[in-house]
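Section 5: illustrative case.
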């Protein structure tokens, strides 16, 4: 677990991107200060975009995608409607941009844990540990990206398919990989996703890491066999990664323009 914990410690570095929904969008510390000094436009735009990511995640998790209006997102983020439309064409475009950014952050953390391990088996376990811990630490993002995405439409389903296809990289170096069909890897990835979906949809997001032994076994057994993979079914140790700063629990935003 040392490699995974190192990767998660890196995730706490404030210089690294945070998962959308992990911060209060209307935190006064994030507001653009008015005054005589001119703030570069790109800094203002980046600040607005990040706050809109957080506001969208929080509103979609609170109201559901169909009921979360652009006005709600703007109020949660403390950003005006004209500023919203300067960044996005509409609610769906904003959702997709937030989804791409958030899943990119998540996959980056997983890749760091996977490639930092000494062997493929440990890398898979560490990567899954990071995935489950990160999602559990930001339940609003998990709800938005895993459950609410179903109500967005065709473009969102394509984005989800592209995201899932990126998980194939974790199986390239698997033992006996060249002896097994590609469909097997797709089935493993799909099975892991469905297990996570069921947990999040049932409102058990905070307990996602309980799935780690089963999902690790499921990912390993086609390549290592039952006997070598069975030890993964034993209870896993507690991980300090569960208190990620990048996954700090935040209250739902109050509404009101700023």
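Designed sequence:
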């Amino acid at each position: 677990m040392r490699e995974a914990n190192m990767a998660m410690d890196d995730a706490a570095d404030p210089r690294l991107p945070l998962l959308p929904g992990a911060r209060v969008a209307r935190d006064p510390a994030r507001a653009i200060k008015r005054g005589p000094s001119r703030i570069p436009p790109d800094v203002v735009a980046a600040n607005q975009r990040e706050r809109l990511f957080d506001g969208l995640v929080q509103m979609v998790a609170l109201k559901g995608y169909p009921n979360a209006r652009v006005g709600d997102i703007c109020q949660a983020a403390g950003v005006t409607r004209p500023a919203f439309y300067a960044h996005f064409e509409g609610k769906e475009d904003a959702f997709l941009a937030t989804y791409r950014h958030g899943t990119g952050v998540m996959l980056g953390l997983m890749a760091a844990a996977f490639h930092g391990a000494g062997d493929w088996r440990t890398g898979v376990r560490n990567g899954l540990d990071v995935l489950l811990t990160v999602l559990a630490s930001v339940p609003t993002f998990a709800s938005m990206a895993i459950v609410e995405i179903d109500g967005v439409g065709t473009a969102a389903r394509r984005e989800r398919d592209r995201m899932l296809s990126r998980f194939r990289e974790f199986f390239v170096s698997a033992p006996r990989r060249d002896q097994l069909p590609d469909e097997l890897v797709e089935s493993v990835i799909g099975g892991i996703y469905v297990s996570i979906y069921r947990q999040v949809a049932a409102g058990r997001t905070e307990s996602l890491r309980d799935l780690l032994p089963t999902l690790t076994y499921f990912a390993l057994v086609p390549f290592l066999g039952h006997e070598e993979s069975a030890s993964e079914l034993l209870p896993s140790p507690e991980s300090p990664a569960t208190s990620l700063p990048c996954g700090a629990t935040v209250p739902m935003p109050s509404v009101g323009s700023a």
